[in-house]
Design goal:
The complex is a heterodimer of chains A (250) and B (336). In chain A, 38% of the residues lie in helices and 25% in strands. Chain A has nine helices and ten strands. In chain A, strand 4 and strand 5 form a beta hairpin. In chain A, helix 3 crosses helix 4, helix 3 runs parallel beside helix 5 and helix 4 crosses helix 5. By secondary structure, chain B is mostly helical. Chain B has two domains: 111 residues, no CATH class; 214 residues, no CATH class. In chain B, strands 1-2 form a two-stranded antiparallel sheet. In chain B, helix 2 packs parallel to helix 6, helix 2 crosses helix 11 and helix 3 packs antiparallel against helix 4. The longest helix of chain B has 28 residues. The chains are: A alpha/beta (250), B mainly alpha (336).
């Protein structure tokens, strides 16, 4: 049990009559890449919103490192060590690349009040995060001006700057071309080697399957299947609902 | 703001700020008249108010229109302290700042859960309630429609009205410089980063650990403190304070200043205050029509110069810097 970093029990979120996430239980182990996929509207992003505190659960529990975090404010969840990216590139647009990373570096682990200077530690975390994501050369560019690929990398950089224990990536390679997908996959591999636990929502199977240690397929807010990538590919239910025959055979 | 600047551009900034300060300091010697000194003093006071307003609207993106209410509250506080308790004007300024800060918490807390236009409506309602509170004050504790008069006016020494006003002007200018330095420091500190990131995307800032409510209340408090102080200073300058300071056309003129100057920029509100106040003086013959003129000027600015009058000036400065670099054959690589 000590390997379970994050554990959800009977997690439910209803929007009116719709149960976006319905009685979902899962556990994420320290150091693994936990892949999540499923048809549109399956509740994947709602699950992330619940875990990151952007949406409150209707019922159920979320335990992170043994502590109950369900319903906690987003910034406190970040302080505890869970950082996420967003499906649509969401950045602090008028800030530079370095300032975006600085938000994470300065506030990511700070429950107290803000000082007047940023400090060398935070500056070092910004440099590290930008180097790791390959954005060092663009540190003075206004974030709103960046192409999609760079915005997506910047979301990862500012998340890394918070020094998270778990990084949640919401469709990191959606909308990218093949070369960019490959680069992103390489980045995620590098991150995992640093000991980071990663939860990865992805539709693009050529990114999801080779990266994930375990994959969960969601459907109508529920868990349809969970297992190693090979088991998932062969699962007849997953093929019927989601992958289709071709992808299942690939 | 924090766009990359070359060394030449930064040097030009310093030259221009130095030049502006020199003009501000020498202005009374050239414009040796009581009329012009009064205009200059008001420019300084309104520029402080606009700097503080820009901090909350421009940098934090919180559409608070309680600004004049907080300004007038500072004025009433010091007037009451002066009339009833015989407090000195400076002590009254501190009291005005503190009362305005507390009042901003009363506005700030309910507005925390609102966004955009709803914050505007709530704070404008506060402005109106406050105005009516003074006008309908039947037992005359606040002087009703006429407000409070005959309390201590600033006296910084000097012989004759021009000399007296010159000294008052230098004090007001010093306050403007101090307020601007404080705001500059805040904008370029982690606090400023929190304000700006929350303005651009709350979801983003929250997910990176920025405590939203704490920083929203903080920006209300800082802005209100400076505004309340300025309001008290203004009351002691006129020796009176009344609900007419909350008239709609005054709110509009104040808004024209930050919009035309350029909100969300550091120098925009100061430039806008100077331009609009001078225009206001030149257009005195138009009386009520001035509000209409400033309204039209605001609309035109929003359409043609969304970042205000400072934007073309900043562009001009950058071109000048580039030209200087080119002539020097500077080895510095161009920015961006």
């Amino acid at each position: 049990m000590s390997d379970d970093l994050l554990e959800c029990r009977s997690l439910t979120r209803r929007f009116g009559a719709l149960a976006a996430v319905n009685d979902l239980s899962l556990s994420v182990r320290r150091g693994e890449i936990f892949g999540i996929s499923g048809p549109n509207g399956a509740g994947k992003t709602t699950l992330f919103n619940l875990l990151s505190g952007h949406v409150r659960p209707t019922s159920g529990s979320i335990r992170f490192e043994g502590r109950e975090i369900a319903g906690m404010a987003s910034h406190r969840i970040c302080h505890l060590g869970i950082a996420r990216t967003f499906q649509l590139p969401l950045v602090f647009g008028s800030g530079t690349v370095a300032e975006n990373a600085m938000v994470g570096a300065y506030f990511g682990k700070r429950p107290g009040v803000a000082g007047l200077t940023f400090g060398a530690d935070a500056e070092a975390r910004v440099d590290d995060a930008l180097r790791m994501t390959g954005l060092s050369a663009r540190r003075d560019v206004e974030a709103a001006q960046l192409p999609v690929f760079d915005k997506k990398r910047l979301m990862v950089a500012s998340a890394l700057a918070t020094q998270p224990t778990i990084l949640m990536l919401d469709e990191p390679v959606g909308g990218l071309n093949h070369r960019e997908v490959d680069e992103f996959v390489a980045l995620i591999r590098t991150l995992r080697e640093t000991g980071l636990t990663i939860m990865l929502i992805e539709h693009v199977m050529r990114a999801l399957m080779p990266l994930s240690d375990r994959v969960m397929i969601m459907h109508h807010g529920e868990k349809l299947a969970e297992g190693a990538p090979d088991e998932i590919r062969a699962n007849p239910e997953v093929i019927r609902v989601y992958l289709g025959r071709e992808a299942g055979a690939a | 703001m924090s766009a990359p600047t070359s060394r030449t551009s930064a040097m030009l900034d310093r030259v221009l700020i130095g030049l502006a300060l020199a003009i501000a300091v020498l202005a009374p010697l050239v414009l040796h008249s009581a009329y012009w000194l009064r205009v200059l003093i008001l420019i300084c006071i309104f520029a402080i108010v606009n700097q503080a307003w820009n901090l909350i609207i421009g940098y934090a993106g919180i559409w608070s229109f309680a600004q004049l209410a907080l300004f007038v509250m500072g004025g009433y506080t010091t007037a009451l302290m002066s009339l009833n308790l015989g407090w000195s004007p400076w002590l009254g300024c501190i009291a005005g700042a503190v009362v305005a800060t507390l009042a901003s918490m009363v506005i700030g807390i309910p507005s925390l859960r609102l966004k955009g236009a709803y914050v505007f409506l709530l704070t404008l309602a506060f402005h109106e309630i406050f105005r009516n509170l003074f006008i309908l004050d039947t037992d005359q504790r606040f002087g009703g429609q006429y407000g409070l008069q005959r309390f201590e006016k600033w006296n910084f020494g000097g012989e004759g009205s021009v000399e007296k006003l010159t000294r008052t002007y230098y004090v007001a200018l010093a306050l403007l410089i101090v307020a601007s330095l404080v705001i500059w420091r805040i904008i370029h500190s982690p606090m400023g980063l929190a304000f700006r990131s929350l303005r651009d995307s709350e979801a983003y800032a929250l997910s990176r650990g920025v405590p939203e409510y704490r920083f929203k209340l903080l920006v209300y408090a800082i802005s209100a403190f400076i505004t309340g102080f300025a309001g008290a200073f203004y009351a002691h300058y006129l020796g009176s304070i009344s609900p007419t300071n909350l008239d709609f056309n005054i709110l509009m003129t104040q808004m024209a200043m930050i919009v035309i100057g350029g909100w969300g920029t550091f120098f925009g509100p100061i430039l806008g205050t100077i331009v609009v106040k001078l225009a206001d003086e030149q257009l005195r013959d138009f009386e009520q029509l001035r509000t209409l003129i400033f309204g039209a000027a605001m609309v035109a600015t929003v359409i043609f110069l969304p970042k205000g009058l400072v934007a073309p000036l900043a562009a001009l400065k950058n071109r000048l810097a580039a030209a200087i670099d080119a002539r020097r054959g500077d080895a510095d690589p161009p920015a961006a």
